[in-house]
Design brief:
It is built from nine helices and nine strands. The chain is α/β, with parallel strands linked by helices.
Length: 274
């Protein structure tokens, strides 16, 4: 059973449920040692065109900057003080990284304990593409570029769901399969994580998101079979919890079983390195 989680979302992102204390109650019930609250950071309109912001920004359902600074961070900080003798609480954001929003990422990093890098959107020929539906044998390399661009800044502790590219990947024939392009990108992500001292996350919520699919869309077995060959890679399991109960559920159990089956060296707790 997991006793720490560093990927948790609150109601502020508008597609999750619960306040910090709701998560803490579940964490204490299952004897968690540490709990990281890492809701989605605001998505700035300046990183995209007005049309893209209509497509992605408004539908991305992130909190506003005012909410982040006046409600979210204070709520986590209050929980830290209140529960300091019972569990270690850490504050965080999950955030996209683009060179254009570098200043904003650095601004937020100073206000929380760590950052998770989540590549849901990436730049492609002066446009933004969606990592769930727009990745194929060509665009996958721009997803890779976004991952490495963020990791090399030294601002991020973890690259969450690094194998998200497999959610809707299409090869040259339009089929979903783990081809040579996926293999090259997987190795590059893993080696960059080692180089820049970034954790890679085995994402339990991906199992939930795959519940209508005959196979897991992510975590991707082929990705993690490559990952296990790198003995110096740091791996954590993340619940990617959007409800308090998701901290400990059948999907986190399946993630643990999957890691055990592959022989992945899972870190029980995470050190904040960035």
């Amino acid at each position: 059973m997991l006793h720490a989680n560093y990927h948790s979302h609150l109601l502020y992102c508008n597609h999750a449920h619960g306040h910090v204390e709701d998560y803490i109650k579940i964490a204490l019930k299952y004897n968690f040692k540490e709990l990281g609250i890492s809701d989605h950071a605001p998505l700035l309109p300046c990183v995209m065109s007005s049309l893209e912001f209509e497509r992605f920004g408004r539908n991305y359902n992130t909190m506003t900057l005012d909410t982040a600074l006046r409600r979210y961070i204070p709520e986590v900080e209050e929980a830290k003080r209140k529960y300091k003798d019972r569990i270690k609480i850490l504050s965080a954001f999950e955030i996209e990284y683009f060179p254009m929003n570098d200043f904003f990422v650095r601004y937020l990093r100073k206000r929380v304990d760590y950052l998770n890098l989540g590549v849901h959107l990436f730049e492609y020929k002066e446009n933004l593409l969606n990592s769930y539906r727009d990745i194929d044998y060509d665009t996958i390399y721009f997803y890779l570029e976004a991952c490495i661009s963020g990791m090399k800044t030294g601002l991020f502790n973890t690259l969450v769901h690094p194998d998200l590219f497999m959610y809707g990947y299409k090869d040259v024939n339009g089929n979903r399969c783990f081809d040579e392009h996926c293999k090259v990108v997987s190795k590059a992500i893993i080696e960059a994580a080692i180089k820049y001292n970034v954790y890679l996350e085995l994402n339990a919520n991906g199992i939930y998101n795959s519940r209508k699919s005959p196979v897991w869309l992510y975590p991707c077995r082929e990705f993690w079979e490559i990952a296990k060959q790198y003995t110096n890679l740091k791996i954590i399991i993340g619940a990617d919890a959007h409800t308090p109960k998701a901290l400990n559920c059948k999907y986190t159990e399946q993630a643990e079983e999957f890691a055990k089956e592959l022989g992945l060296p899972i870190c029980e707790t995470m050190e904040v390195n960035h």
